[in-house]
Amino acid sequence: MTTSYLITGAKPYGEPAQDLLIRDGVIADIGQNLQADDAEVIDGTGLIALPGMVDLHTHLREPGREDAETVETGSRAAAKGGFTAVHAMANSSPVADTAGVVEQVYRLGVEAGWTEVYPVGAVTRGLAGESLAELGAMAESAAAVRMFSDDGHCVTNAQLMRRALEYVKTIDGFIAQHAQDTDLTAWGTDNAAQMNEGSVSATLGLPGWPSVAEEAIIARDVLLADYVGAKLHICHVSTAGSVEILRWAKARGIQVTAEVTPHHLMLTDELVATYNPVYKVNPPLRTEADTQALREALAEGTIDVIGTDHAPHPEQAKECEWAQAAMGMTGLETALNAVQHAMVETGLINWRRFAEITSTRPAEIYGHQHQGQEIAAGQSANIILIDPAASKTITPEQHASKGRNSPFRGIELPGEVRYTFLAGQPVLAQAELTQPVTERTGA
Amino acid sequence: MRHLLSTAELAYDDALRILDTAEEMAAVTSREVKKLPTLRGRTVVNLFYEDSTRTRVSFEAAAKRLSADVVNFSAKGSSVSKGESLKDTVQTLDAMGADAIVIRHSAAGSAAQLAASDWSEAAVVNAGDGTHEHPTQALLDALTLRRDWAAAHGQDSPRGTDLAGMKVLIVGDILHSRVARSNLWLLRTLGAEVHFAAPATLLPQGVEQWPATGHYSLDDALAAAPDAVMLLRVQAERMGGAFFPTAAEYTRRWGLTDERLSVVEKLTLGETGKPAVILHPGPMNRGVEISAAAADSPQTRITEQVANGVAVRMAVLHLLLSQSHQEESHS
Q1: Subunit contact A204:B108, Cβ cutoff 8 A
Q2: Over the stretch A324-367, which tens digit does the pLDDT of each residue have?
Q3: For the structural domain made of A4-49+377-393+411-433, what CATH number should be given?
Q4: Where is the Aspartate/ornithine carbamoyltransferase Asp/Orn-binding domain (chain B) (predicted)?
Q5: What are the residues of chain B with a beta carbon less than 8 Å away from any beta carbon of chain A?
Q6: What is the Cα Rg of chain B in Å?
């Protein structure tokens, strides 16, 4: 089996073309007119080389909802989407709140071998928001968990949130908060929030999810993080008001980072007027003004990273009444396209900033040493080659994910992931999955 | 017009056609033989996921007066309570040959989803979807208002007329009311001016973008001299203190009490000198949103509303089904 690849004429970060020699899992050399007789040559003309994308927010559904997704199918989707690492949220069944479950997810990821899979541990036992899960045991497990989140649920209790932030300091971890005031969104009641509250919800008669329900929790939690000196990450920021609070917190030096999803950069609550549950997501699609504020915040750095919140659901969970439908959208295989469309083609960012928000910063936030590295000699060969000039109509039936619930269905978007190199091996070549890296021993 | 899903999407010409057809239907219902053969051999399914005897009976009467076969499908005691999906239920009804599906559902948008789906070829009539819309209620209210408005202005017949210049005040739980939403859009389409009176807790966020004037005080709203006052039913589940403190406080501030009735008695239909009218979609909470005297006042049109409901629903079914029948025979 070939272990060396010579990529000719690709543009790192969209900058002047270089040749890249990949050997034994690392970038062995970078420069002009490289020669390597033993290497398989890949013509990189017209392609952009980027560090492999790192998703801090993925739902792989296993264990428990293998009808929606498995670690295997979600890993394939990640490789196709250009992700060399994904972080699997804890809301599986059973919940990833013990060393046993996180080790199971981690092992399934290694066995799949299409991307690196890092399980996220639950903050509270059973995601119930009542008592801390065994954070230390998950940190010390083979999965070496550093990121803890009750995503899907907010850690509502302020005292518990304070304790969680304090406790993860002792294990060098951080808390990723799903910011949603449960009372303001009538969570768990018959009248639970269904969409962004505003003029569209007023007309559609769907219970509103007010922006202040997100902003109030973010304001509280940045103050808590400041008070106890802990690291806080805000999942899927969706409102202009949240951006204002984050800007203030960062200026103050609070250790807070934030993510935004590709769908919140592109789509608005006007789409809910179709009552098509493919547009039902939590937090909900907001207004045009919010998407603009999020784009600007991502460009300037107030928002650090893209997180897909990839949330596959089986057909019947979306082919029903809006109020009964599951929340969530797939995202792994459309992230490049949506972000290129919303951020690069609008001139808000260049490809170097794209690499920061999709790879460098998420790897830094988690603390990965071998992901999100500069494309340079000696670095781990977790890289992707994308064709920015390609364009395609999004067709969920062609996705490797089991989920068909893409909100971008039928929309023509730019960009295509042509190659994904995981630890020096092309798990994706010519935009087709090849074979997994099964001999990997992990981080 | 293939379906009737909302008044927000109902064009002026279609609205007027329904109202004018309803006048013809109303003439039929005053005859000794209250039946037309137009929909003979066609099947109307009343698919009711929510209990609403009044609306179901009204649609049933409308369909039967047009000689249609009527199937009543209630979610309770059916396969729906065993977890059958809307899709499977509708496909089952479609396979049985439903020409029209009249759907009542607690989920906003269910009628629109059904119409947009390929689950059924039937015409869809929204008979109330969650807190979204209830278009036939708004149409029957408009039919009721139009008769008074046209008569006061010396028209021989209301046919062909609209509500231009009329000022309608809607009082109560706008936030949770599909009746208020459907009335807002239809009244605006027909040229009327809409006012709301409600506590801020019962007005939706974003209401300021609606083409309506809001009042927190019912007395202020009455001082603006509306031509019609429509009281909305206060739902029992709103009375627990979450939206307003008590039913008594609601009545004091937003109820059509005997004292406020004396104000309404002085209101007229525009400059005509004819008395303003009082509407209520029913069922009423006497003593809460409307006093007994107001409910029984000669200004109220509540029984007319019920009678007009049948006429409007006949018109809707007739227009949807006889039109689609013609299109089929032409193709």
Answers
A1: yes
A2: 999 999 999 999 999 999 999 999 999 999 999 999 999 999 99
A3: 2.30.40.10
A4: 165-319
A5: 8, 85-87, 105-110, 112-113, 116, 129-133, 178, 181, 204-207, 209-210
A6: 20
